[in-house]
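Internal QA ticket QA-208
Title: Verify multi-chain structure generation after dependency bump
Assignee: T.L.

Test input:
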Amino acid sequence: MSSSNSRDIVLECRNLSHWFGAKKVLQDVNLQIGRGQIVALVGPSGSGKSTLLRAILGTHPPRAGEVRMDGVAFRSPHRDRGIVYQRYSLFPFLTAEENVAFGLKLDQTSLAHRCFSFFKWRALRSSHVEQAGRFLDRVGLSAAKGQYPSELSGGMCQRVAIAQALIMRPKLLLLDEPFGALDEATRESLQLMLLQLYEENVQAKERGEPALHTILIVTHELNEAIYVSNRVLGLSQYHETGQDGATIVYDKPAPIYRPNEPKDVSRFHEQKELLLRSVFSERHIQRHSEFVSFWDDHEKRVATGATFMNDPG
Ligand SMILES: Nc1ncnc2c1ncn2[C@@H]1O[C@H](COP(=O)(O)OP(=O)(O)OP(=O)(O)O)[C@@H](O)[C@H]1O
Ligand SMILES: [Mg+2]
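Actual output:
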């Protein structure tokens, strides 16, 4: 992979490998995620998608290789990176709004601050609640701010969990099968919410500002991967040296959808077939870089002045 100044890279994995005892899980994973990209990660069950996310989160650093955020290698978690799992983990005794404000409260006020600077703390607290309200508006939950998790549906709780992660303004948001436990209709509405976040990136770009959201989402559902993302990565053990673990075997752009555009899954057919063959099929053993072309294509577009919306920055 050639490096270039035309890439505004938020996250990079360099020759990242991981194993548990004698079991090799990840082998030389190399990837770069550009600011403002919404990247979907797909792969067979057990290929190591969650292991890769944990390495990127920093809770389980890789056995070999490194992960870099804005060019700086790290081996521990940081608020720069947020994660939302399939099962939301909200505090049952806090309202939706208080749940969202909770991270800011922990981050910005100490107990001493709360006791000794009561009035300042109270002002800060109301600013946190006000910010939480705005984030709940953005995920379509304006009407549920005062409700407790037990009064919300699974889809609503998952929206709260996403607002909880977004309010910390992570440079990279990791989503590990965030909609996996939801019914089809709820899932669709949350997919639209992700398109809305991408729309916020487009609007920021139009204002000449940096993109607000960079997201890496793991999903089992190929239609979902292609629909919500602008780039699809495939992680798989099915490649020529696969006995040593999974690596990135597919990396291509996905069509961009705006929130008001009808979802036309027939457009996904060709890409799905290619994904099934190159990422999920034990029978089609390939050179692992055969379908890895996102950045090379990007360089070509930059060279001809033909950048498009998939391009970061
Ligand atoms: N703590 C652990 N100890 C031993 N083996 C582990 C551990 N965590 C994961 N593994 C193994 O590593 C492999 C990759 O697991 P991982 O959960 O990352 O896969 P995945 O791609 O997220 O799968 P799924 O799609 O089912 O969520 C699996 O074979 C799993 O059994
Ligand atoms: Mg997993």
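Spot checks passed. The chain has a mean pLDDT of 89.
Status: verified.
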